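Private note to self, pasted from the team thread so I don't lose it. Backbone tokens:
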């Protein structure tokens, strides 16, 4: 049985063009601004973004997250990899990291073999 060849005349396509609605740029910029104003807090494996820490001190954040993030009392606070005190005021978009220097294994005293 011979196959008939169909000519593509374009009649199967609809002549109606779907309209495209561009996303609302103001809403997009507002969402982006909200994300960049969050403060990132890290201690070990714990990491969280908070949007209500802008204007708060490092000491108050350390106190409020001590139990949740298991932050020791003598942990150092770092913002932009620089040590800051408990009275440092946080701004939106900052990264706050709590670290504790690990102990040194071995004995490096005045006695040598």
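Design output:
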């Amino acid at each position: 049985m011979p196959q008939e060849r169909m000519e593509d005349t374009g009649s199967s396509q609809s002549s109606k063009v779907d309209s495209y609605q561009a996303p609302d740029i103001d809403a997009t910029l507002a969402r982006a601004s909200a994300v960049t104003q969050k403060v990132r807090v890290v201690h070990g494996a714990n990491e969280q973004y908070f949007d209500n820490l802008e204007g708060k001190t490092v000491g108050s954040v350390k106190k409020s997250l001590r139990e949740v993030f298991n932050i020791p009392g003598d942990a150092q606070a770092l913002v932009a990899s620089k040590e800051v005190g408990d009275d440092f005021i946080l701004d939106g978009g900052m990264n706050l990291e709590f670290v504790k220097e690990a102990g040194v294994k071995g004995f490096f005293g005045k006695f040598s073999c």
